[in-house]
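Example 3.2
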Amino acid sequence: MPQPSEYDSDRPIPPAEILSTPPFQRTNTELNLSVLQRHLPSTTHIVSIAPYAVVYTFTPTAQNWEKSGIEGTLFVCQQSPSRNVERFSVVVLNRKGLNDFVCPLSEDVDFESGYIILRSTDADGGDNIWGLWIFEEQDGTSTAGLREVNAKIIQDCALRAARPALDLNNGGGQSDGYGDKQNISIQSTTKNYNRRVRRSPRSLDENN
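Structure, written as tokens:
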């Protein structure tokens, strides 16, 4: 006659016990970070998100802006430091094609007429000028003021990227405005700027 097993692992698990075991679930932030790390492996944190943005390119010869064909969710990303220098990038995951927008941040960031203006240098040494238009709705909605909020965040991240990361550890352990000396969290950043945000100027392409 077979003897009952002394090991719990040999015991059949009743269906009710299987159903009561919660599945492993990741948060939206964890899912977004996982996706971004496939495009930009050095990404460590998501600083801010805008649900919908359009990327424009500036043509110096014609002196006009043209759509780049890149539209989608915008992320401001913090990356792992390089040579004691903090790194941040703006990423737009393209809904209209396979070419996503990735632009490392430098000091040269402007906010004019509702556009966030970025400048970068390509592999051939040429200068690129980009305009980011972020969708926002009227006051009282979840996206109200989002354009100016993200413009301020991007400008501040660009300034941080211009100084050595080791400088952030000085000053007697003082936080430099983001709630952590080395890492930026989306929660604290958005909270800080939402207190100061004003209504953004309307873009000429508001209906685009």
